[in-house]
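Entry 14. Structure prediction run on the chain below.
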Amino acid sequence: MPVSERQLAAFADTHARRIPFDTTPRHLAGPGDARHVTHGLAAAGWTPTSDPLSPQIVLTSPDHRHSLQFDPHSATSAWWRLRAEATDTEPGWYAEFGELVPAEVLGGLTDALVAPPPREQPDPWRVLSSAGWLLDAPAAAHAPDALCRIELRSTDQHDTPSWHIETRQYDHGTPAGPRIWHAWFNSRTPTHLVAAFTAALADEAPLQRGMYDRIAHHSVVQRPSPLTPQQVVEAHTARLDTIRRQNRATRRQQPKAATAPPKADTARPTARH
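Output returned:
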């Protein structure tokens, strides 16, 4: 389902009335506009499969293997849930994200999901180190302000390690206070998708937020942006055009053979709190 002219006009109207501010660091920038995620997936051919009158949004990929759920009334701390069903050749996997995850960061992941996978799996740790994050032994890294931490860890000795990302407030001078937002990728999530998320998270380029947009923490730094509202909208539209062209090229290269149907969901996690 392509993004309609009416939907693009609504996005433009929203941002035309906002004075953009460069907002850093990204992990404290607040949720931003969820359409950075949903418009990108729609441009790649994903379709809504949820009740149009419900506040919950579910988008499903053309092959019905992947789905993204946005639930602002979630009973848990996860507002976004991304699932991949298992096939005969690939395992299922699951990822979830908290309310205040920046939409542009999640969009970095979904853009990578709808793009052809890289020939070589990137190293998330190298991505973080190149962006100035500090690596901790044996498998952890934290942002320069220490408020966001990424770990590859197991809950017990029998578990395969999974990726845990948390942004927390300071408590008595240490970043161990209340959680601001989280992201969790189970152990079967493709590494290049984790790397895409961490690259978007650690990117030093500011995110644009309006003067009264919700931010995640008072220590965020905001300065008037050199971008005009029109340039913000044009960048969004250009990204969608790129995704459409990429999607068309990928479809032309795919063989005519039918795709194997997904297996029963083995990636659905137990209840998390």
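DSSP finds six helices and 13 strands in the chain.
Filed with the rest of this week's runs.
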